[in-house]
Each structure stands twice: as C-alpha cells, then as structure tokens.
Amino acid sequence: MPGPIQSIERAAAILRLLARGSGRLGVVEIAESLELAKGTAHGILRTLAGVGFVEQDRDTGKYQLGAALLHLGSSHLDVNELRSRAINWADALAARSGEAVRIGAPLEGRVLVVHHVFRPDDSPQTLDVGGMLPLHATALGKVLLAYDAALLASWRAAGPEAYTRRTLPPSAVARALAEVRRAGWAAERGEMVPGEAGIAAPIRGHGGIVVGAIGVSGAEDRICEPSGHPKPRLLEQVRDAARAVSRDLVASR
C-alpha cells in the first residue's frame, strides 16, 4: 500500500491550526507553528484558498477558515437554493420539450421532488412537489445513485422494491449506474409506472459534486424512440438544462 501523501497531511495540519485559533494567522505564523518552509506554507495556503477552504484578509494578508470548508457540515445543498436556481431553466425545459419537468434531490434514501413543472398542455396533472420517488426505478434516482457512494450503500442495505415487471433488479441497477457515469445521463422506461418514461441529467454544485438531478417524464412513445432509446432532441434539451442550472449554482457560490 502506498504511504500517506505529505502535502495532504500538511494541508490538514494548516486547517486544524486555523480551526484552533480565534483569529487570523499569517504565513510566517503558520510556517513557524508547523515547522514548514515559508514557501511551502504559502503554496498550500494558495491552493486551499483556490478551493475556498481558507480565505485571506485583503488588508492584513492573514488567513482564516473559508466558507466552503464550513459548508461541508451540511450533507446536502439547501433544496430551496437548488429550486430557486433551477426554476427558470425548468420552465424553459418544459416549454421546449413539451413534457413535464421535475427536479430531485436525495432525502432519506429516496428522491425528494423539489420542483415540478406541468406538461404545457390542458391534460389533467397532479403536482409532485414534496413527493418521494424510488431511487432505482426513476431516471432522477439513478442519477443520484450513480454519483453518491453513501447513498448507493444505504439503498442496497434497504432492499429495493419492484414496482413493475420492468423494474431493474440490483444486479442490473449496478450495470445501469456504470452506464450513467459513462454517458452522463439516465433513463427510465416503465420501471415505476407502466407506460411512462423519463430522462434525467445531474446538477452539479461547487467542485463538481452532484447535488440533484433534472429531467423530463411522460408517455413512453413521446419520450422514447421505437427502439426504446430516449429521443435525441429531448436528451440534449435535458442535458443543456442540467448544465445551465449547474453553472448558476457554481456562480452563486
């Protein structure tokens, strides 16, 4: 087994030092406290500042813990923030695709629907906001499972339920998630509700972490080609919307 990585150990020591103190510390103070060369300490601090783990005071040049590090205490992005950043893009996706749009985030081993835009026609529809969907039988859920190892482990431990004859068994879900990671999107076809299909793509926050998913859903013949593959037009629209929401989230940070 390879040994510990010295630069990571030093970065962790700097973070502990800053967390222990009540005020800001300068490069020289940090270097002396940890018996590091000034140049080494400065290089590590510059890297930590680049990812938001430390912040430098413009007037004094001293460092303190950054907001991005403090935010790690929250396991998930605030769903209200996710919804507020995604609303306009979800509305646009519904208008372009002609299908219902849902945005989901992980909660208690399920998919929480944080936003739902009705299909833009006069058909009767039910608002899904606040509803909980299964992870393995929906496109939204597959996206979340594919990029969250802890969520996947808890899902496996819970024992997935079969909703239709097309609901994937655990062995097939594992293969499907590998394909989601390769392709960057997920699909469902009659796996939760017979005759319904969906497409979803990941929404990424700061650092590229997947914090949610956005997708379209509707009748199988409208979402999929006769071959069963998602229609390319819809797939591209979903992916475009996911990228747009992700850009807004990162910019807001």
UniProtKB/TrEMBL annotation:
Domain HTH iclR-type: residue ranges: 5-67
Entry keyword annotation includes DNA-binding: yes
PROSITE patterns membership: HTH_ICLR (PS51077), ICLR_ED (PS51078)
Domain of life: Bacteria
Keywords: DNA-binding, Transcription, Transcription regulation
InterPro entries associated with the record: GAF-like_dom_sf (IPR029016), HTH_MetabolicPath_Reg (IPR050707), Tscrpt_reg_IclR_C (IPR014757), Tscrpt_reg_IclR_N (IPR005471), WH-like_DNA-bd_sf (IPR036388), WH_DNA-bd_sf (IPR036390)
Transmembrane segments: none
Gene3D superfamilies for this protein: 3.30.450.40, Winged helix-like DNA-binding domain superfamily/Winged helix DNA-binding domain
PANTHER family: HELIX-TURN-HELIX TRANSCRIPTIONAL REGULATOR, ICLR FAMILY (PTHR30136), HTH-TYPE TRANSCRIPTIONAL REPRESSOR ALLR (PTHR30136:SF24)
Name of the featured protein: IclR family transcriptional regulator
Provenance organism: Amycolatopsis tucumanensis
